[in-house]
């Protein structure tokens, strides 16, 4: 708060949002934040942020973070997890990679959203070289069973 007050007094046209000076005349702080720069990042495995919720993930994430495997861990339909918009963003982002690298999507739960997305976009997935693993594998440990997927690198 002290920093915000000092910033406002020393520079009345600007304020701090998450430690970044912004112009209050703009409609949203996002409009003044710098966009991603530099080359994309290639990783073997990436968890889609926030349980595949649309709050933090958009096509730009998939343009910049290029993974061989993406894990979808959402299982809360009431909170939009996983989000159909995020799954569609994967298709949009991957379509702009310019190279046809194999991508595997690993859902940790069998959800209606994931099933519908898979069925409705299957041709596009094939075109983009995206494989979706079935979440029907089961592991039994200490008298408890749960869905699981095996990943080999």
Can you summarize the main beta sheet?
A: 4 strands, parallel
Number of strands: 8
What is the average per-residue confidence, as pLDDT, rounded to a whole number? Answer: 74
Radius of gyration: 20 Å
Q: How does the helix and strand content classify structurally?
A: alpha/beta
- Based on Cα principal axes, name the global outline: globular
Q: What percent of residues are in strands?
A: 15-25%
Give the N-to-C terminal Cα separation. 48 Å
Helix content: 25-40%
Q: Can you walk through the features of this model?
A:
With 153 residues, the chain is an alpha/beta fold. The protein has a domain at 41-147. It has helices spanning 2-10, 49-52, 59-64, 84-94, 112-120, 122-127; strands at 15-17, 20-22, 41-47, 65-72, 103-107, 130-132, 138-141, 144-147. The strands form three sheets. The chain has a four-stranded parallel beta sheet with strand order 3-4-5-6. The protein is globular, with a radius of gyration of 20 Å. It starts with a helix and ends in a 6-residue tail after the last strand.
Provide a short characterization of the protein structure:
With 153 residues, this protein is α/β, with parallel strands linked by helices.
């Amino acid at each position: 708060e002290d920093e915000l007050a000092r910033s406002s007094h020393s520079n009345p046209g600007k304020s701090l949002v998450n430690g970044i000076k912004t112009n209050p005349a703009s409609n949203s702080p996002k409009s003044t934040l710098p966009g991603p720069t530099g080359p994309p990042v290639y990783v073997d495995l990436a968890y889609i942020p926030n349980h595949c919720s649309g709050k933090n993930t958009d096509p730009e994430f998939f343009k910049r973070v290029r993974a061989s495997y993406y894990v979808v861990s959402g299982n809360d339909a009431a909170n939009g997890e996983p989000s159909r918009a995020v799954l569609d963003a994967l298709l949009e982002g991957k379509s702009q990679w310019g190279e046809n690298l194999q991508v595997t999507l690993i859902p940790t739960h069998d959800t209606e959203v994931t099933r519908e997305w898979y069925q409705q976009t299957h041709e596009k997935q094939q075109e983009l070289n995206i494989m979706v693993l079935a979440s029907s594998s089961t592991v039994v440990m200490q008298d408890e069973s749960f869905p699981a997927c095996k990943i080999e690198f």
